Amino acid sequence: MSAEGAARLPALLPRGPGHQFVVYGDSCSGIAGALHEKTFASVNAVVQRLEPPPEFIAFLGDEVAGYAVDRSELEAQWRHWLQHEMAWLDRQAIPLWNTTSNHTTYDEMSEATFSTMLAHLPRNGPPGQEGLSYFVRRGDLLMVFVHTMWTGLGGEGHVETTWLSEVLQRHADARHKLVLGHHPVFPINGFSGAYQREIGPEHAGAFWDVLVEAGVLAYLCSHILAFDVQVHRGVLQVCTAGAGTAHRMPEGVEYLHCVQGALDGEGLRYQVLDTDCRVRERLSWPLRLADVSQWRALPAGVSEAALAGGPYDDRLVGLSFTGRAAAAGDGSAQTLLSAFRPDLQMPLWIGLRGIDQRLTVIVGFQARRSPHYWYGPAVAAGSPFDLQLVVHTGMGPGGFLYRGEGEASWSSLTGASAWGAERLDWPERWSVGHAARGPVDQPFRGTNLSVSALVQR
Q1: Can you tell me the distance from the alpha carbon of 403 to that of 160, in angstroms, rounded to the nearest whole number?
Q2: pTM score
Q3: Of 337, 341, 357, 418, which shows the fewest CB atoms inside 10 Å?
Q4: Are 22 and 260 in contact (CB under 8 A)?
Q5: Which helix (H) or strand (E) segment is 16 a member of?
Q6: DSSP characters for 394-438?
């Protein structure tokens, strides 16, 4: 059935005044009859079924296969992408904004080609990056498109931050601020490597500081062929690179997709749609949790906790841990909370590990397979601690979030997994202060441990 004749897909709409849009990236197409032309068309067919249509579309790079030596060949790819593969889109009614990327702006020739072929993009970027970096203001929404490949700084993985900071300061009145680029800042699914896979280290820290200080809601990126969401110091990193490139990172887990989102006075909501039009992942941000004083206290020792069940594709469990950390000198594991089943070594373990007593989450969902690890902050030896942990099954591997006492912003724990708590069948047996084998099994060695929990769906 053609996209025109297919059943319509309900789009998320703002709850009051706001914006609704589509963001996707990485099709690596532009060549007639090639494999990626077909896969890109399958994703575009989903976008065309959205009702109502998006107000605008942001494409986060790697539109064409690129990497051509000859400019005429690269221009031909762009013409095919714009005039044939995207011919269905009325760009007068639905603006299309693009970011630069490694397949499209890999040297000075390709930067010039990008600027020429996408002449509709604003020319309000920093000197030397006209048509490559730019910003768009739509009422209370500011979108800043950054060039993470700038040859003037060193090429792939290099991005300037001075102009970005100035634009964000100049538009500080915008209710919603999004920054869009190609390369992630934080590793995704264990795929890591400075410059080639993430923004280089000499830029990454300053770049994220700018976003945090300006109150940016999210950095939207692609490049890693996956869908992924993380949060760092309260700013989301959303990676969507499923627009047609027929490879996955990793295979068997990730999938072709597009992201449809809505912004309003309450924040951001999105749904991730695969090529069968199924909603595979979703999020409403910021999180809204009951005050921790209303969470349910979990008794010390072993209990039947009201956390069991699953797996769940959209469940939130909040856990609060307070106490006084053990003295320094012993790096053996200390359990804060453990969940166990007779057939799995460690379905879920939360505690402190190492000499620095670092917050650690361990998840095992399959017998005789290695568990996966997530790491958070260290607690000071002998000192009081107050940590909140959220396990969000709708956020994949980025869905293990923490914040410390007095902190308003959440950050994702660091891990190398391509999946998260959505695979967890939550056990019925839980223990506080020690692991599955009893009070002497990885006991908490500090004092005054208190644990409380919140469950939301």
Answers
A1: 29
A2: 0.96
A3: 341
A4: yes
A5: none
A6: GGGGGGEEEEETT----EEPEE--S--GGG--B-SEEEESS-TT-
Instruction: Using alpha carbons, select from 278, 257, 326, 254 the residue that is nearest to residue 9.
Output: 278
Sign of CA dihedral 428, 429, 434, 436: negative
Phi and psi at 253, nearest 5°, equal -120, -50
N- to C-terminal Cα distance for the chain? 35
Contacts 24+ apart (CB under 8 A), 446-449: 446/323, 446/324, 446/325, 446/326, 446/334, 447/323, 447/324, 448/322, 448/323, 448/324, 449/300, 449/321, 449/322, 449/323, 449/336
Q: Are 272 and 282 in contact (CB under 8 A)?
A: yes
